Amino acid sequence: MSGAQTPSELPGEGVPTAQKSSWTTFLKSIASFSGDLSSLTAPPFILSPISLTEFPAYWCERPALFAAIADAQTEQDRSIAVLKWFISTLKGQYTSRNEKLGSEKKPLNPVLGELFYGFWPDVDGRGQTNLVVEQVSHHPPITAYYLSNPSKGLVLQGHSAQKTSFSGGSIIVKQIGHAILTVDLPDGGKEEFLITLPRLRIDGLWYGSPYIELTETSYIQSSTGWLSTIEYKGKGYFSGRSHSFKAVLTPPESTTPVKRYEGVWHETSKDLDTGETFTDVTSIKEEVTVGPIENMHEFESRRLWQHVARGIREGDYETASKEKSKIENEQRQRRRDEQAAGTPWKRWHFEHIESDPVYERLVKMFNGSPPTEDTYVYQHNYDVTPSAAS
User: Which residues fall in a coiled-coil region (predicted)?
Assistant: First the structure.
């Protein structure tokens, strides 16, 4: 079921008959839970076979759009290219599990130190784009990532975490974190873009067919002063369609938009000034390239979760649950051993910084909130190349 579909009228209609009892129990536990819902154990049939550690790959499902940012000639054109690329990443991040699995599924909670490496090869001169991801915290769960296209002079570095709560029959997800996109300019300078993250609302729980809507507003602030403001609404607002958005681009020292865009982020949108198509994500996306599982490090996502993922995909929820518990118990024991030995876990690739100076500088330009945020800085100690990934 996609976000645009209407749920059936019967409670739990989207849940397998054999699983309705555990789904009802899960809903009751959500409704009565006062803390962060991410710590709740979901029934296996509602789980996705993909770990959250893989999610940063959604930033580059359309690598040509990412590479095109570097080809823009003016500050305004670069801001437009960044907005176009960003809107085009939303479908993969927030509806792909609906389309593949019938309804929104809960991603697997990564373990501390979980890793994901991948790349998108050079095609038609766009350059190779590389990805390094690490689960840098378990409580709270935080994923750090570094996406780079060296030949185009593009780097996206960021981290994300989620705080979830239950309200009005929906799960509300506050995304914590941000991304900084750095563009090397032909004159030797750099342009930076702060990208904030939208909030989510997961609807359709009562029907057993969850789907995600984006809510409120997110921003893309350039160091040159150009600002993109993206407002998200669900069904019954702008166009009466799910996944609707409006975006405006304003120049430095101004509150008057010079460009306006509108549409649905999981299909198409248009430039309201020209009537031309702005984004179109109805074509097939490009999956990230990874190496064979047998060559992966034991902490790499697809090797770590391979038996859980197979159980979920095959509907063998007993095996999925057993394998998932095995991984979680091993992690708990690892933490106990570290505590007893007085040797805390050491991150593989990222260093924690209490306050991100780039975030602090750019968030002031549009009076964003919060005024400061921490970050995780990549240490450039892994080479993602075709030879390394094969």
Answer: none
CB-CB contact of 172 with 201 (8 Å): yes
Q: Count of residues for the chain?
A: 390
* Exposure string over 161-188, b if 16+ CB within 10 A, otherwise e: bbebebeeebbbbebbbbbbbbbeeeee
Distance CA 49, CA 146 (A): 23
pLDDT tens digits along 103-136: 567 788 899 999 999 999 999 999 999 999 999 9
Handedness of CA 288, 293, 297, 299 (dihedral sign): positive
Full domain range(s) for residue 65: 55-103+111-303+353-389
Of the candidates 104, 89, 85, 87, which has an alpha carbon nearest to the alpha carbon of residue 263? 87
370 alpha carbon, distance to own chain's centre: 20
Please list, in sequence order, all residues whose beta carbon lies within 8 angstroms of the beta carbon of residue 332, skipping any fewer than 6 positions away.
none
> CATH code at 280?
2.40.160.120
The 10s digit of each residue's pLDDT in 12-47 is 444 455 555 555 666 666 655 555 555 555 555 667
CA distance linking residue 161 with residue 142, whole number of Å: 5
**Closest by alpha carbon to 115, among 341, 308, 273, 347?**
347
